[in-house]
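Figure S7 source data.
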Amino acid sequence: MVNEFHQKHGDYSPYRISKELGISQHTVTKYLDTEQPVKSDNSKLSKFAGEKIANNILSVNTNQQSILNNILTLYVPSLHFDADLTYSKGSFYRKGNVAEPRYKLDKFPQTEDTIELDNIDDVIGDEALESVVFDLPYIVKTSWVNVASKVMELYKSFDSAEELINTNKAMLELARRKLKRGGIMVVKTQDTCVATSAGAKQLWVSQIVLNHAECLNLAHEDTFILVSKKLMLTKHEKQHRARKNHCYFLVFRK
Ligand SMILES: C[S@@+](CC[C@H](N)C(=O)[O-])C[C@H]1O[C@@H](n2cnc3c(N)ncnc32)[C@H](O)[C@@H]1O
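Tokens for the predicted S-adenosylmethionine complex:
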């Protein structure tokens, strides 16, 4: 019955089908042929002449290169970042899916053409960049984090919450100083948990970045959310808070 109804009304969402047939949405999704993509109810979205809804840029994605390209498409006319301040090995640009930045910088350079971040003033003048991106580590070393992991070795970590917060603020200030007026700053960031004497505590890094950006008079243009497809789950006797499986790409304009 569900499949037959869906064939007749191909553009009805599972929610609408459930209302029309008087059954639960769970039952609808269970009976719908999973091989056949269920069309969402687009009737409430405005359609522009000749444009396909499928081409719309959405705020949530499971692919970080799609998010980066979407940000470039919407905000950076040159379609590449002028500078990446935390280039590392350049996984943002892997396989050429995202255009390489003009300047690659990092506090701990990992490639031959990456400039040491401490030398930025020698190569990039103030107010010289149209766009800049950075992606700092979000891990604070704790007894429960495996400090020997390869990811930690490559991407580094902070010794304390204070160091993480101060570095984020300093990077926002540096990136702002290097941006032209009207330039775009993209910050990849993630909330985290830190150990305190009273147990694990949430550290809302994204909120700290947003607050400091506001203090610096940066306009918050957009937020993109990257949802992880894979998650290494940990064993624990009792879970106390949601395991974070998303991070943010915050877009600011000077
Ligand atoms: C998560 S990684 C960046 C990954 C990069 N976006 C990529 O596509 O591969 C974090 C980077 O921040 C740099 N970093 C670590 N500590 C830093 C600090 N205190 N100040 C500035 N950069 C730092 C690391 O060297 C590392 O390359």
